[in-house]
């Protein structure tokens, strides 16, 4: 049986259950439907679907990751909107620019996911705040050599993501 046929069978047998499971956690039927679709897109994107003894446990595991990413995106958007609210109206970006910036922030967050917090922080201080190695070292309480290692690690993550 082909991978897509396996995913189709999984979808037909368990989509309704997954949608209900997500709706109970989110309290929003529209978001639940979106995240259920995202879950199956991840399954479809996998090289192969393993032989599933417990398909609902498998789907729930993937859905929990999708849900976690959903909450992270919401937190990021909330923080961005709070930062925008602090800006004077005349320098605040237009709606289109806001959407582009938010999407870029979400992609950057996803790209840096899995790096140690201090590595992420060093990278963001360098790239977003424009701080130099010595300033980052003082901010984080680490040596310049450690700052360089952290920035190299983050840069390698970015390079290999491309």
UniProtKB/TrEMBL annotation:
- Pfam families documented for this protein: Sigma70_r2, Sigma70_r4_2
For this UniProt record, the keywords arranged alphabetically read as follows: Sigma factor, Transcription, Transcription regulation
InterPro entries xrefs: RNA_pol_sigma-70-like, RNA_pol_sigma-70_dom, RNA_pol_sigma70_r2, RNA_pol_sigma70_r4_t2, RNA_pol_sigma_r2, RNA_pol_sigma_r3/r4-like, WH-like_DNA-bd_sf
The keyword GTP-binding belongs to this UniProt entry's keyword annotation: no
Q: Ranges for the RNA polymerase sigma-70 region domain?
A: 10-75
* Domain RNA polymerase sigma factor 70 region 4 type intervals: 106-158
Presence of keyword S-adenosyl-L-methionine? no
State the family named in the UniProt similarity comment for this chain: Belongs to the sigma-70 factor family. ECF subfamily.
Write the protein's name. Sigma-70 family RNA polymerase sigma factor
């Amino acid at each position: 049986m082909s991978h897509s046929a396996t995913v189709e069978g999984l979808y037909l047998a368990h989509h309704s259950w997954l949608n209900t499971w997500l709706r109970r956690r989110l309290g929003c039927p529209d978001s639940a439907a979106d995240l259920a679709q995202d879950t199956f897109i991840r399954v479809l994107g996998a090289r192969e679907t393993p032989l599933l003894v417990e398909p609902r446990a498998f789907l729930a595991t993937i859905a929990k990751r999708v849900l976690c990413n959903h909450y992270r995106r919401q937190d990021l958007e909330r923080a961005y909107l709070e930062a925008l609210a602090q800006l004077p109206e005349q320098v605040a970006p237009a709606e289109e620019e806001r959407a582009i910036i938010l999407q870029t922030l979400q992609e950057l967050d996803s790209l840096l996911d899995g790096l140690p917090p201090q590595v992420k922080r060093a990278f963001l201080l360098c790239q977003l705040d424009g701080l130099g190695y010595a300033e980052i070292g003082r901010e984080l309480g680490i040596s310049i050599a450690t700052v360089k290692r952290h920035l190299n690690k983050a840069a390698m993550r970015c390079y290999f993501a491309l």
